[in-house]
């Protein structure tokens, strides 16, 4: 998807558009670090509820050394989540914390305790179908990322791909943002645009967006972990 020169274009992804990150000098792109080159190995905590394809993409990039991180723990609120089974198959530490009927604050305190126990540096929401409490967010200031299948601030919340189709936009995409106390409102780290085709269904559009999600989530994680993102007001900007 990224060519050898680290271009931001994705010529091999039809209609994939341009990757826009919180930086103008993306020249480095995703690079594979040599062992021992000084990249500290940070720890990720992944929260998921379902399919887990974003988790899988992050895990593969981490295992291949494309992001300076390893996955410390995968937490699911649903025992039947495919992503949880996948995490177990891949040999990661997993925890199931069922959420049904639980008080939000108490539930979040339990998740925080698990994540702190694993000393995670960054929490990645990867299809985690719960809104986090302010108490949870305060425990990881600017250290929680979420991915959303639309170009925020358009189409926040559920069914973003359907909303984009129904509205008739010609461009949609995906967004990785820092989580704040709102729903899909935090500072934007990366976005990728995807053109909507006249013959798109929700499924075909979602599939093309998902391919971009898998690419930009790791990019955003890398920028955060390299401490290259500074939040200025609403904006996540690249540190000089
Ligand atoms: C993705 O579309 C993501 O943008 C949204 O939830 C979906 C999760 O998919 N937040 P997966 O579980 O990562 O496959």
What's the gist of this structure?
The protein has helices spanning 53-63, 82-89, 104-117, 134-139, 160-167, 202-225; strands spanning 19-21, 42-48, 69-76, 94-96, 122-125, 144-148, 171-178, 188-195, 229-232, 235-238. By secondary structure, the protein is of the alpha/beta class. Helix 1 (53-63) packs parallel to helix 6.
Can you walk me through this structure?
This protein has 240 residues and is α/β, with parallel strands linked by helices. The chain has two domains: 124 residues, 3-Layer(aba) Sandwich (Rossmann fold), CATH 3.40.50.170; 103 residues, 3-Layer(aba) Sandwich (Rossmann fold). The chain is built from six helices and ten strands; from the N terminus they run ββαβαβαβαβαββαββ. The strands form two sheets. Strands 1-8-7-6-5-2-3-4 form an eight-stranded mixed beta sheet, sandwiched between helices. It has a two-stranded antiparallel ribbon with strand order 9-10. β3, α2 and β4 form a beta-alpha-beta unit. α1 runs parallel beside α6. The protein is globular, with a radius of gyration of 17 Å. 39% of the residues are buried. The structure holds 5-O-phosphono-beta-D-ribofuranosylamine. 5-O-phosphono-beta-D-ribofuranosylamine (GRF) binds next to α1, β6 and α6.
């Amino acid at each position: 998807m990224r060519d050898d020169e680290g271009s931001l274009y994705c010529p091999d992804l039809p209609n994939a558009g341009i990757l826009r990150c919180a930086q103008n000098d993306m020249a480095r792109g995703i690079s594979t670090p040599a062992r021992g080159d000084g990249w500290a190995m940070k720890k990720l905590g992944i929260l998921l509820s379902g399919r887990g394809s974003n988790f899988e993409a992050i895990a593969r990039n981490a295992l291949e050394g494309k992001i300076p991180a390893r996955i410390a723990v995968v937490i699911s609120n649903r025992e039947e989540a495919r992503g949880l089974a996948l995490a177990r198959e891949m040999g990661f530490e997993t925890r199931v914390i069922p959420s049904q009927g639980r008080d939000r604050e108490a539930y979040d305190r339990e998740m925080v305790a698990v994540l702190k126990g694993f000393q995670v540096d960054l929490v990645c929401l990867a299809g985690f179908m719960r809104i986090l409490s302010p108490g949870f967010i305060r425990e990881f200031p600017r250290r929680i990322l979420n991915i959303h299948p639309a170009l925020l601030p358009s189409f926040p919340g559920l069914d973003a791909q359907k909303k984009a189709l129904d509205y008739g936009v010609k461009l949609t995409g995906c967004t990785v943002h820092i989580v704040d106390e709102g729903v899909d409102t935090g500072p934007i780290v990366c976005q990728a645009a995807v053109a909507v085709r006249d013959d798109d269904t929700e499924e075909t559009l979602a599939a093309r967006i998902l391919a971009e999600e898998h690419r930009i989530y790791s990019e955003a994680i890398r920028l955060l972990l390299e401490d290259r993102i500074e939040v200025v007001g609403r904006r996540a900007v690249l540190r000089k």
